[in-house]
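so the lab meeting is tmrw and i was supposed to have these ready like two days ago... anyway. pasting both below. for each one the top line is the aa sequence and the line under it is the structure tokens. i havent really looked at them closely yet so no promises
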Amino acid sequence: MRAVVQRVRRAEVRVGDEVVGGIGGGLCVLLGVAAGDGPAQAQALGHKVATLRIFDDEAGRLNRSVLDTGGEVLVVSQFTLYGDTSRGRRPSFVRAAPAEVAEPLCEAFAARLRELGLRVATGRFRAAMLVEIHNDGPVTILLDTDA
């Protein structure tokens, strides 16, 4: 699994004119699932995101997690994180998990965050989404369970 984690002041996802998920301060997670990923990766990555220390402490150092700050998390599925352009300019998505595998793993990831006590909003799987992100810092971290 792969996640682009952004510290945000707020974030929102729309499908058409409908707001399907939104948060105040916290994290926006763009989440990609690779072929071969399973529940263990969803659990581990969920824990890593929840405990990732990318929020300022009293001294201004990145020393606090979203759990520490009481922030929220917006999870947006994004198969394009596994786009491969090594053979040209048109991305290949063969490394991305098929939707019937990826959707329950995205749900398991969000469920893990909820189990840890976080408020979690999500986008809508397989929908054309408009994501509005107010990146704070900006702070953006790439996490990958394969690395």
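ok protien two:
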Amino acid sequence: MRTRSLHSVPLISIVDDDASARVATGRLVRAIGFRAFGFASGEDFLSSPQLHETSCLVSDVQMPRMGGLELQTRLRAVGSRIPIIFMTAFPHDGIRERAFAAGAVCVLSKPLDASTLSQYIEQALSKGATDN
């Protein structure tokens, strides 16, 4: 567990239309020492005050209206460099290729493993620090 003041703990935003998956991912993120905030859709995240506070985004790939890859495209189009970790119950090479081509940190299969998620969040935060 991290020993930081609340204001220095990175915020990991989670976008998943499945409430139980969103809550479970939030618990995992908090258990490994980060702050977590969940969103039911990409639109909710894009219109939130947390958008500019987010240090890393964990997003489901397949969601109604705006999927994770479209969310990634919209973020990049406005110049956002938030590192993105994708999660999906239906991994396939096409998704991975598109995600990585646009700069994703990784594409993880659901259900998420805490150790793997922690490793990639740390990697994303390190990458994000060097991008700024």
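from a quick look at the 2nd one: The chain has one domain: 6-131. The longest helix spans residues 114-131. will dig more after coffe
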